[in-house]
């Protein structure tokens, strides 16, 4: 029996196949790939762009200003869509491709899907070395695209046009697998892109993809139920996997009926609203006094959908060495960490089965009231730090409070690296589920504005939270990557950006000095400056205005409140800058293990070293 074929170039076939992939969100069928972020160069402009141009009504292409930031926008989009829809990022070869490696690392660390497509050098090698080619003297098959191997879940280089028939479905399967979710990379050599091939017509038929929900092992569920029944002070840690599984309601109901307080990781924050009855605050180094107190005394801990990163565990000092872990995770790698009783499976399915196995068991009656009392104390502490004062320069905590109160119920807060993460993790009171995006798994400076652009794209259609992305970042991060303000203006996607100008990399200066090193090369005043007349501060409002944003600089909390009202009334991306204090922070209680010199002539470093040794003495053994 003969099968019909369609003759296309490899690049045309890739694009045609991508447009035929669909998924379902909230019962509605939508394209699996919602669009493309692209910067064209000689490695992708002649063949791939020709194919993309012809389908721009089905698969829209958005021009970025920097390959890293446009790929980060795709990461922000995936997080806003809770991994149910995917964006593509494409670049040329060489530096354009390498610029996307950081974004791939961000997606990899955070278990988020993005399809990265980069041009590559010629397979036939006849014109070698081509523009932007890096030559390896001992291995001519190596190109810069091999750098993606360390930060992707799936990697392939297409050396024959037929290879996409098997490769592309494997890439999608990896990106949609809850246990293996992360970025996929496809390298397209320039000469392979142009080659025509007779593809089977069935390859381009519409294909519906769904995200699997693996069921847990029955024995693991029974063992976990038996262990949990011994608990006097149980605790649930809700991670990002709870949100990606759509298990927020199930986990909250389970916690309420069983009398177990819920604390959250950085990726898990936003699964519950701030004042949900079972919510006890964020856990860890930039967490709350309430969550950390509960963690310290917990005897059985149910970790759901978390990789238990050091900022969650206080470098494994936050828990008793005798505490037992039940770890529910779709990824076996995460589930077995730290001697946990591993339940490998989907969060929603696993919690429901664990709930059924517990029968009538509940935690001691006094456990949840104690958690609520601790959380009320924490909330009052937040109030005390966020309240307006007579100080000339507002603190981060005060700024966060003003922005939080002005935010709509469905507006999404976005933050990443620097001092902002600690202040929003602690102080942002989430009003609606899944309206909070703190990228602190990779702590990627530059994520914020790019992710705001991607989130703005995701704020419509099935599964969207709605509202407006509100990006909060420091002056240091703004200087590192800000060009997607222009991207958002150009494409018509609105976000509100709050730039907190505290004179440099303030939080890392805090860590530096806390560990005994004098302030050096972090705050602008501590940097080497050749010209004494050099300005120490940038006019961020003027800079953003030059990119087409509506802008305003404010000095007081009252003016910030008015500016937020104005920003929400605008129809385009708006940037507000405000001078903030570099030395005031909301307190936290967890320890952090960082390297401190074993030998130093500085007494301050010697004391910091002694403190670090004491911290390490509290760590759980991770085997």
UniProtKB/TrEMBL annotation:
Q: What is its EC number?
A: 3.7.1.22
Query: What region holds the Thiamine pyrophosphate enzyme N-terminal TPP-binding domain?
Result: 36-129
Per the record, GO CC terms? acetolactate synthase complex
Write down the SUPFAM superfamilies for this protein, in alphabetical order: DHS-like NAD/FAD-binding domain, Thiamin diphosphate-binding fold (THDP-binding)
Keywords, in A-Z order: Hydrolase, Thiamine pyrophosphate
Boundaries of every Thiamine pyrophosphate enzyme TPP-binding domain copy: 418-577
Pfam families membership: TPP_enzyme_C, TPP_enzyme_M, TPP_enzyme_N
Which InterPro entries did the record assign?
Answer: DHS-like_NAD/FAD-binding_dom (IPR029035), Myo_inos_IolD (IPR030817), THDP-binding (IPR029061), Thiamin_PyroP_enz_cen_dom (IPR012000), Thiamin_PyroP_enz_TPP-bd_dom (IPR012001), TPP_enz (IPR045229), TPP_enzyme_TPP-bd (IPR011766)
* Gene Ontology annotations of biological process type: inositol catabolic process; isoleucine biosynthetic process; L-valine biosynthetic process
Residue intervals of the Thiamine pyrophosphate enzyme central domain: 221-354
Extract one GO molecular function annotation from the record: 3D-(3,5/4)-trihydroxycyclohexane-1,2-dione hydrolase activity
What NCBIfam families would the database entry show?
myo_inos_iolD (TIGR04377)
Q: Which family does it belong to?
A: Belongs to the TPP enzyme family.
Protein name as annotated: 3D-(3,5/4)-trihydroxycyclohexane-1,2-dione acylhydrolase (Decyclizing)
The species this protein belongs to is Paragemmobacter straminiformis
Its taxonomic path starts at: Bacteria, Pseudomonadati, Pseudomonadota, Alphaproteobacteria, Rhodobacterales
Name the encoding gene, please.
iolD
